[in-house]
Structures are given as C-alpha cells and as structure tokens.
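Before the break, one more example. Copy the sequence into your notebook; we will annotate it together after we see the structure.
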Amino acid sequence: MKNLIIIGMISLFGFSFMACNNSSSVKENKQKVAATDQTAKKEVQTGQQAPTKEIAQSTPGETKGQKVLISTDYGNMTVLLYDGTPKHRDNFIKLVKEGFYNGTLFHRVIKDFMIQGGDPDSKKAKAGQQLGIGGPGYTIEAEFRPEYYHKKGALAAARQGDQVNPERRSSGSQFYIVQGKKVTAAELNNMVQSTGATYTADQINTYQNIGGTPFLDNQYTVFGEVIDGLDVIDKIAAANTGAGNRPVKDIKMTITLSDK
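Here is what the structure looks like once it is written out:
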C-alpha cells in the first residue's frame, strides 16, 4: 500500500501525508500531488502578482458543531468538525468513540508545514520504525468545499497520491493539522494559477496574516479546524525529528468528544 501523502512532502511507504514527489515547477504540481517538502515550499514562493480570483462574498467561520479534544504532552487542542463534510465528520466521530486514536502518535512532523497522525500502526511502534502505512481498511470519498481551506489549524485528511488515487479519496483515519506560514499576495496568486482555487477577502487576509498551506487547497479534504490550542501545533511542529520526519521522542495523543 502507498503512503498517505500531503502536498509538499515525499512518502515512500504507504499512507504518509500529502506530498509532491518530484522537483517540478508549480505548473507541474497542478498535475501531480507528489513532491518533496522543499520543492513544495519553493513552489509557494514563485508568484509575482496579487491574487486575481476572489469569491464575491466571504464565508464566516463556523462555530457550532461537534468538537473533539486532542490531548498530548505538549498541551490540548480543541477541534471543530465541519458539518459541511459529513462523511469525514461522521467517520472521525466513529473512530473517536471507538478509542481508535488513543495511544497513536503524531508520526510525521515538518516545521512550517504540518503535523500528521492517525496511523494505528504507531501504537507501541519501535524506535525508528517507518510509519504512515496503517489505516482502518477503507477510504472516504473526497469532500472539497471552497470555504474549507488550509489555514493554520486546519484539520485535513491524508491520502494516497493522484497516480493511484485519481479520485483523491481520503485515508480512513490518517489526518494532518496545518501549521504553515504567512503567505504573500504574490504567492497566493501563484496558488490560484496552479490549483484553480478561489479565495474570499477574509481567506486572503487569513493566509497573509495568520498563515497556512494554500498549495494544498483543492487537493485534500479539509474537514475541521483547531479553535483552541494553536500554540500546541507550534510546539509539536518544533520537535526534533529523525528519519521519515518522525519525532525522536514519541508524541502520543488521546482524542475524545468534547461538549465545550
């Protein structure tokens, strides 16, 4: 099985996160979701003009819905699950109720990009063990929505690359939380041209002043966001890592439903 990938990183084994696996240009990145983390970051820095596409009305952030609490030794994060992505929301709630995530690790951490977890194989994993392949044995249909984007704190689903997963179906359990970095208007324009994404004024402002990973928009399903504990993302992202971007010291998590 291939790693779950997230745009911007290479995954050589199974479900690793999102990633691009070549050193091509941003235009080529539109055609492939795989690439190295360094390549993806370079691609975000090549724009030259202000964003040219914008949705007429902005969409206010959601505040109501099911919340979950992700507890770690670095602190706790409260995450709101979006009602607009019901397949991902309901699956995540099911797994949380089953205790699926308890004792799993944030097994892949890249500063200024994201923190990834949800691999059941990470429970009691040996030091140096390659992680990123495991899952519950199924995938989830993509649920892309323009109002759900990769701002800092976004919760999104990892998946296999386009070559083996052209429908961009999500992993049944692996997820990542965006750290990212602040993005200039020129960089956002580059993303508009390469991904076809459109942004509201509020979204542009968020990317420029809070940060995120816009090169992942329209590539991976965003189904929630951290509404309390953004500083915990920074603490985890700063952890020392070894092979496969796995933290040298295990970062375990427990996820429970929250009514706050």
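The domain at 26-49+63-258 is CATH 2.40.100.10 (Cyclophilin). The helical segments are 26-31, 37-43, 86-98, 185-195, 201-209, 230-237. Try to locate both features in your own notes.
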